[in-house]
Amino acid sequence: EGSVFLNGSLIDSYIEDIAKRIHDPALHGAASVMVGAGFSKNADVVDDELSAPNWEELAVSMFEALYQKPKGEAVMKNWQIQKIKKTSGKNVLKLAEEYKSIFGRNNLNKFIESNINDDMYIPGDLHKKLLSLNWRDVFTTNYDTLLERTIDKINMKFNYKILTSQNDLPGSTHPRIIKLHGSVDRAKHYIICEEDYRTYPIQFAPLANTVQQAMLETQLCLIGFSGDDPNFLSWLGWLRDNMGENCPTIYLVGLFENMSVAEKMTLENQNITVVNLGDMFEEKVNHQETLTKFLDKLTNYGKEKSNIFEESPYKL
To answer: In degrees, to the nearest 5, what angle opens at C-alpha 224 toward C-alphas 126 and 106?
Structure first.
């Protein structure tokens, strides 16, 4: 009983902290958001057969292009084991490195573009809800153009600038949508191989510094990332390398029902607050339902301050 009670009250405080910053940044300090591949799953599709690939699915296609499916049963088992191993977490970066070695960088770029299928997706309701909020900046590690295309679909309250390269940074004004890892429409330098990640903080120092600045000046929220997403782990690593113990808290927002206590504690030791949106519900829910409720709470905060969060079962 106790832990449910505690989770319920904590989730409300986290959401309220983000909401206050969005609605009154002058008083509470601003908020920024970094959007990962999981969020693209909320796009609408031109063809019902499709669904925007997440990191793991992209990795599986890459693995199958590199390692042909064997015929015999005995070798098949080993192939399956290798497939799981090579397409999880940071191993994806090694896999992309192998792909680049065998087929070349140009073919790797083409592989990304044909798998992303950018023109087959349309920004969905959640994209509109996300960008209708008063973020100071929106960062994304995604290659697709869903966020940029959302701007035309929302009431233009905020004049977003789109930055697809570090050369766009000087003199740019907030709010901005900053593409950190390349963009299928313009910047062809996709960050995907191990070597790209290794050299990123040096080659793309202005972008790494911009995220660091956002962490110092605003509350950074990550959305659309899993706890073992290589993008999330790499960014966390670079920020910690540079900021050491002064690393401010980051909110990792999403549905993390399968995250173990050990994983959660490890993240918390690195100043990551896991905001598990599942704690808002008593029944089992999916990612879309939780994100809808989360973004609606942020949007409606202040309009109905007294009852935005369900009545607490106790009085303070």
So the answer is: 110
- Cα–Cα distance for residue pair 224/232, rounded to 1 Å: 10
Q: Closest Cα partner for 17 from 221, 198, 159?
A: 221
Q: What is the pLDDT of residues 38-66, one digit of tens each?
A: 999 899 888 766 666 677 788 899 999 99
Answering whether pTM is above 0.85, one says: yes
Give 106-112's long-range contacts (Cβ < 8 A, gap of 24+). 108/190, 108/192, 108/193, 109/188, 109/190, 111/61, 111/62, 111/65, 112/58, 112/143, 112/184, 112/190, 112/192
Confirm if 23 and 305 have CB atoms less than 8 A apart: no
Within its chain, how far is the Cα of 91 from the centroid? 18
